[in-house]
Amino acid sequence: MSNPIRKLRTERAWSQEQLAEMAGLSVRTVQRAENGAPSGLETLKSLAAVFEVSLDTLRSEDADKNEPDEEKHMENTIDSANDNQQPTDLEITIRRSATLAVILAMLALINYVTMPQYLWVKWAGLGIGLAILGMWANWLSSKENQADREPKNMKEMLNTTGIMLASGFGLFMLNATMSPGNWWVIWPLGALAIAIPILWVRFLNR
């Protein structure tokens, strides 16, 4: 008996990568599901929603005849959980950007407390701003596994946009407070002004 998930996917002429993107799952999870490995309830719900079918439709008719032993079932369950918990490139980029922003804030505080007459932190701010810009540019321009790199739904898209805008506002306030005579912030803000529309265009045209 053919696997119902593979059958539904091929009927729609979707690739495994396309199905994974639409369901918000990893490609490996889709592959295991098509190979008959046990799938979690949330995985089945996501696939059922994409295919617009009931959960029962996704369960193979011969599933009971090929019941895996308890050890194999546990191994597959753990692997599936690890796949779903593995951070995406987007999450890694956000975390690294946030870490650099925190470091910059600490440097600004140190500068303000120890040497307020000389704002050396502006140079650190310029370097960190360019580093953050570089990370986001790399994420946006990368073509490899693009479906896994971009937000998969409107909620993720809004969250990503909000984080990018908040980062830009934070850099603006830091520039305005620490170095109002040298507006280096225009460069990272300009990059964000380009990156955000590009991200939305890609998201809406998928």
Could you please describe the fold and organization of this structure?
The chain has 206 residues and is an all-alpha fold. The protein folds into 2 domains: 4-85, lambda repressor-like DNA-binding domains (434 Repressor (Amino-terminal Domain)); 89-204. Helices cover 73% and strands 0% of the residues. The protein has helices at residues 4-11, 16-23, 27-34, 41-51, 55-58, 70-85, 89-114, 121-141, 146-149, 154-178, 186-204. Helix 8 (121-141) runs antiparallel to helix 10. The longest helix is centred in the middle third of the chain and has 26 residues, at 89-114. The chain is elongated. The relative contact order is 0.10. Mean pLDDT is 75; it is low at 61-72 and 143-148.
Number of helices: 11
Instruction: Give a short account of the largest sheet.
Output: none
What Rg is obtained from the alpha carbons, in whole angstroms? 23 Å
Share of helix among residues? over 70%
Distance between the termini: 33 Å
What class, by secondary structure content?
mainly alpha
Mean pLDDT: 75
Q: Give me the count of strands.
A: 0
Give the topology string: H per helix, E per strand.
Answer: HHHHHHHHHHH
Strand proportion: under 5%
Low-pLDDT parts are 61-72, 143-148
